[in-house]
Design a protein that fits this description.
The chain is of the alpha+beta class. The protein has helices spanning about 15-25, 105-110, 115-140, 145-155, 170-175, 180-190, 210-215; strands spanning about 30, 35-40, 45-55, 55-60, 65-75, 80, 90-95, 95-105, 165, 195-200, 205. It folds into 2 domains: about 10-140, Jelly Rolls (Sandwich), CATH 2.60.120; about 140-215, Arc Repressor Mutant, subunit A (Orthogonal Bundle), CATH 1.10.10.10. A 4-stranded antiparallel β-sheet has the order 1-8-3-6. The chain has a 4-stranded antiparallel β-sheet with strand order 2-7-4-5.
Amino acid sequence: MTLALPLSDPRAARPATALTDAFDRLGMRMPFVRNAEIYAQEDEAELLYRLVRGVVRTSRLTVEGRRQVGAFYYPGDIFGLEPGPDHRFAAEALTLCEIQVVRRATVRAFAGDAEVDRAILEATYLELERLQDHVMMLGRKSARERVGSFLMSLARSREESHVELPMSRQDMADYLGLTIETVSRMLTQLQGEAIVEFPSSRRFQIRKWAALQALAA
């Protein structure tokens, strides 16, 4: 069963033509092995990235030394967009990845400042919506609802009966603002109630869509 993505989900949108054309014509494809750093926190944001294959995780270390996972990106997603000159989050390859990379300056020379500014503004707006949804989830949902929402978000765009879970339990915990023990306990509860089934630690299947949708609502 496949559900349509909401318009606020970046994977349901299409960035402006100037940006996609620039990636198609000028983007250099680069491979990244699992756990490889794509860019570091506070690196200069001179490049733009589009994911071709794999999954990317963004994260940052707080002043207390805690890790905060910002987002997960999937094939077709553009990332590395920043309102300022530096990256606020680091980006790592969660799996084996292939990424198209293009310089901002090259994109401007190709399409012109006005068109590129419009394209980047549109893509940045989608990033802000993603961030707002994340903040609302952390502020208003219980641990059980957060885990249910996360699993539903992964399943919505997949047509396979089994959904891959490329991130670790710790990744999920750092993204959902929970401890790894709480995440594991919630997953065990959902499986015990036959809402989801985990044939392995990195793959799951939804058994009761209505129940999981109710948690994610």
